[in-house]
Amino acid sequence: MAVPPARAIVLLSGGLDSAVALAWARRQDRAVLALTFEPPRRPRGERRAVDGLLAWAPEVRSIRLPVGFVTDAFVSKSPPVAAPEGYVPARNLVYYSLALHVAESQEAGWVVGGHTAEDAETFPDVSSRFFASLSALAAESTLVGARTPASIVQPLQAMRKHEVVRQGVAWDVPLGRTWTCIVDGPVHCGRCGGCRDRQAAFAKADVPDPTSYAAGDRFK
Known about the structure:
Layout: E1 7-11, H1 16-26, E2 31-38, H2 44-52, E3 60-64, H3 91-105, E4 110-112, H4 117-122, H5 128-141, E5 151-153, H6 161-170, H7 193-205
Parallel strand pairs: 1-2, 1-4, 2-3, 4-5
Helix pairs in contact: 1-6, 6-7
C-alpha cells in the first residue's frame, strides 16, 4: 500500500509573514492545506490576498468564527496591562486548536505558522513557551497524539520582518498581493500600525514596496 504524502496545515491570513511561511512549507516537499479564518469584521483585503495566493495554496479551507469573536484590538475599561495594537485575547489558542483539529482529520504532521521575532516580543500567545505548552496539550487531547502528534512549526520565528521580506523576494513570493492593513478599505490605509510595520520592513530590506496605499496617507 502506498504511503500517503506528508501533509502540512499552514495558517494563512493573507499577510506577508503567512505568505512566506506558506512558501517555506511548499519547499519542504509537503502536501499543503492552507487554513484561513473568517472572524467578524475581517478586512476584505485579507480575503482578496488569500485568493491572490491560490497559485501557492491550491487547497484552501476557510473556518468562519462566531459573531462574538473579537477581531480588533482588545479594549477594556480597566485593562490590567496596556494591550498592544492588534491584540486579541487568546487568538492563537483558538486558531491553533482549530488547526490541530484539522491536522488530525487530514493526517497532517505539521501545523505551520508565520510568526516572527517581533511578534514573539509583542504578544503573549506567540512565545516559544506558549507553543511548547500547546503542543504538549495537543498530544494529550488527540487519539493520534501519543503516537505521532502534529508538530507546530514556526519557520520565521528567528527572523525580523525585513528579513521575511528579503526571504519572500528570494522565493518569488508575490508580496504585492498580500494584505497587512487593519482597516477594511480598497487599499492599505498607510497609517495604521500594520501599514507602518509593512513600510518599515520593505525600507529596511531595501526592497521596493509594491503596496498600494491610500492617497496622501503613506506614513512618513
